[in-house]
Amino acid sequence: MLRKLGTRFGAQLLPATLGLGPGLGRKVSGARGQGWLQPAGHDTGVKVYNSLTRRKDPLIVGSADATSWYSCGPTVYDHAHLGHACSYVRFDIIRRILTRVFGCNIIMVMGITDVDDKIIKRANEMNISPASLASLYEEDFKQDMAALKVLPPTVYLRVTENIPQIISFIEGIIANGHAYSTEKGNVYFDLQSRGDKYGKLVGVAPGPVAEPGDSDKRHASDFALWKAAKPQEMFWASPWGNGRPGWHIECSTISSLVFGSQLDIHSGGIDLAFPHHENEIAQCEVFHQCEQWGNYFLHSGHLHVKGKEEKMSKSLKNYITIKDFLKTFSPDVFRLFCMRSSYRSAIDYSSSSMLEAKRLLLATATFVQDARAYMKGQLACGPIREDVLWERLSHTKAAVKAALADDFDTPGAVDAIMDLIHHGNRQLQLVTKHLLWVTCHRDPAVLGVLLCSAPSSPTLSSFLRPLEFLWQTDSLFQGTAARPLCTAWWRSWSDSGSRSGSLPWPQERPAGRPGGSSCWRGSPCWRHATPCARTSLPMASGLRSSTSTWELLDQRETTTNQGAEDT
């Protein structure tokens, strides 16, 4: 399994993904990006850097009412740290921008890896079951994300709750001639069967690597889809014997389970580009027998400890947990810290950088406070140059939207806002004591526009309270009117009688084709997503983790439960 090759092999391929230099292995035929198919659909007006092409492409989604987005979730074996937080907060910012500024209704699915070598190892060390450990840290992860004001996905899906679907997906890959089983009970993806189509993200196919003497792979570069059970490990029955899924097949199955053979956006940290996302592409395209499964791959840069080239990670023991961080700084400070650099770039963490973000946040809040005081007649100042402020306001609104449309350029948007605040502060300078009795013309109109919550212009007004729509709890994403979209999917699917029982997929599956791609297209859950999205909002404020990862709570029920916990 490629994941077992260690970080060194994967790290040598990352420069190729980032366009920083050559990687290892053989080159694929043709130039990177030439085979990319620009999708048809709704043009969002955004240019986004696409890792598939290494350039900024127009972001065209299948539907503005139901934009599909798959996010790789955590492997829940320990506390999340700031390196994880940086990636999730950055993509949360992008999600809010697409929703509030560019009018996309995002349907986001996140997979939770709750069975894994690390989980099993840690559970054995703690003398508890892997399921108990995974449940503990899954809840811990969700609490950390809520503390950071990261909106929950539309639906969480756990690996262990979708084993039959994963088995069916593997069967489909085997039936299409791209995987094989062994006498030991393992199933591997046959990388050579992919030919030159492998390497869409990194531009190379992995070369030969050393394998253990008892390896049952046909080729050293093949990777595991199903792993035969080892003594004293959790396992599930399958056509190839007892075992559990490989790493890469989990996300391919979960994403396809909801979105089928076409995906608008796939996101994750840059370290996941190879081998994880590369192998996801290979698995999905051979299963669905399509030329292009995912249209846009977005990768976030690493969080580095300042003064070091290494990323923040548990293996390097240089991490800060989210809980420890929040003892010193607020989640708003961390979010502004993330916004001051491109989501694609590496970012250095230090106390000085956090203090600078805190200073900027305070400056924004102070301006808002002074502007409100002026509007109430509580701030003595000279005459306001309204014509100048109106001109600055118009310029800033255009600059902010242009920046956000250019690959979500949050540093440019923040700079435009801070420039406007600078000019506003110059207008609101306190007059000297002997002028306090002078009556000046006071017209709060322009400052009122600056501070109002105008839905038609969230690019500026929301930024100024301060940058609010990018982090505050918002009625757009929650409330009693927001009927859970994923619940509607699940009910329609369950009503078809195919969620449980002998058939793990909708009953559209053609006879004799256990894993054929046609059983995904037009499945009940996705077919009803677009009309449901027009009348339902995909977010809610709570999750009932004790019963299901996808059941979203009504706002009133969430409030009641929180009150009970507080007492």
Strand order of the largest sheet: 6-5-4-12-13
Overall 3D shape: elongated
Instruction: Report how far the terminal alpha carbons are from each other.
Output: 49 Å
Q: Supply Rg.
A: 26 Å
Query: Biggest β-sheet: count, sense, barrel?
Result: 5 strands, parallel
Count up the helices.
Answer: 18
Overall pLDDT level: 77
- Portion in beta strands: 5-15%
Q: Give me the secondary-structure category.
A: alpha/beta
Using DSSP, what is the number of strands? 15
Point out poorly predicted stretches.
Answer: 1-31, 432-439, 453-466, 474-567
- Helix percentage range: 25-40%
Please specify the SSE layout and strand pairing.
Layout: H1 7-18, E1 26-27, E2 42-50, E3 55-61, E4 67-75, H2 82-100, E5 106-113, H3 117-126, H4 130-147, E6 155-158, H5 163-175, E7 179-181, E8 187-189, E9 204-205, E10 223-228, E11 243-245, H6 247-259, E12 263-269, H7 273-288, E13 294-300, E14 303-305, H8 322-325, H9 331-339, E15 347-349, H10 351-375, H11 386-405, H12 410-427, H13 445-451, H14 458-461, H15 485-495, H16 524-527, H17 529-535, H18 555-566
Parallel strand pairs: 4-5, 4-12, 5-6, 12-13, 14-15
Antiparallel strand pairs: 1-9, 2-3, 7-8, 8-10, 10-11
Describe this structure in words.
With 567 residues, this protein is α/β, with parallel strands linked by helices. The protein has helices at residues 7-18, 82-100, 117-126, 130-147, 163-175, 247-259, 273-288, 322-325, 331-339, 351-375, 386-405, 410-427, 445-451, 458-461, 485-495, 524-527, 529-535, 555-566; strands at 26-27, 42-50, 55-61, 67-75, 106-113, 155-158, 179-181, 187-189, 204-205, 223-228, 243-245, 263-269, 294-300, 303-305, 347-349. It contains 18 helices and 15 strands. The strands form 5 sheets. The chain has a 5-stranded parallel beta sheet, sandwiched between helices. A 4-stranded antiparallel beta sheet has the order 7-8-10-11. Helix 3 crosses helix 4 (130-147), helix 6 (247-259) crosses helix 7 (273-288) and helix 9 crosses helix 10 (351-375). It is elongated and about 85 Å long. Residues 1-31, 432-439, 453-466 and 474-567 have low confidence and may be disordered.
